[in-house]
Design brief:
Rossmann fold; six-stranded parallel sheet; single chain; three-stranded antiparallel sheet; alpha/beta
């Protein structure tokens, strides 16, 4: 699949590119392992982040603190950079005032692409169909929330290999209330070229909610996948990321950025 995204005329070498991967709520860098392996095999400098939180590391546990951590990582990168957020990670990407030492693109994978004044739960609870809405949460103390295993399985991992889904459930950690309930102060997608990957079988952020946010992006892809496409469809997710990195070069050759991807992906 990746061979179809390569062209003799492109200027950018993948070894000169960076991908920064931001996990969703309750998840860590581990959620991106399959994608990281594929991108690194292509020579792309790939970093999956662990955001500060209980069981994950020191630092501010809220949306603003997470955005600051992301900015500190991206600001030191040179070359073309793609920053991808999954689920709540999209809110972090949008909240960060991202600056890098090279061209920068944003990608939202079944993610919260928030406008100013919105928060993840205000957007998600509107449809009333999410398996990971506010009514599914378990409060572990006054400030931290966790999603129970049964709800997480239904919302996140319905199309993930069962053993891998159980491993993911074992790794979930509590999240501070000011992450998913944190109010967005910025809309970074309005400052950078942005794309959205809509997952049509998602039970966490249902497709109707994703479609509304995807209209804010320059381009939308469609995957016939559940919420955790980086676990269930890592090859397709990785291919989309490569296409995004090479977008300008492919345009110079007259190729569409999604050319070579399965028809089910390009929307």
């Amino acid at each position: 699949m990746f061979d179809s995204l390569r062209t003799e005329n492109r200027v950018t070498q993948l070894s000169d590119c960076n991908v920064v991967l931001v996990p969703g709520a309750w998840h860590g860098a581990w959620a991106w392992a399959k994608v990281v392996a594929r991108l690194r095999a292509l020579g792309i400098n790939t970093l999956a982040m662990d955001l500060p939180g209980q069981g994950r590391g020191d630092g501010r546990h809220d949306l603003e603190g997470h955005a600051d951590v992301l900015q500190s990582v991206v600001s030191g990168l040179t070359g073309r950079t793609l920053v991808c957020g999954h689920s709540y990670g999209g809110a972090v990407v949008g909240e960060a005032t991202l600056r890098s030492q090279g061209p920068l693109r944003l990608l939202f994978l079944a993610a919260f692409m928030l406008d100013r004044g919105e928060c993840c739960m205000s957007v998600n609870d509107v449809a009333g169909e999410s398996a990971s809405g506010s009514d599914s949460f378990e409060w572990v103390d006054d400030d931290h929330v966790l999603i129970p295993r049964e709800a997480a399985m239904e919302a996140f991992y319905r199309d993930v290999i069962p053993d891998e889904a159980q491993d993911a459930l074992d790794r979930l950690t509590p999240e501070h209330r000011d992450t998913v309930y944190g109010i967005a102060q910025h809309a970074g997608w309005s400052q950078h070229r942005s794309s959205y990957v809509l997952c049509g079988r998602d039970r966490a952020i249902v497709p109707a909610v994703q479609r509304k946010m995807a209209t804010r992006a320059d381009l939308a892809y469609y995957l016939d996948a559940g919420h955790s496409a980086m676990l269930s469809h890592p090859e397709l997710v990785s291919a989309i990321m490569v296409a995004e990195l090479l977008r300008e070069d492919l345009a110079q050759t007259g190729e569409h950025p999604t050319q070579g991807l399965p028809a089910a992906v390009a929307k």
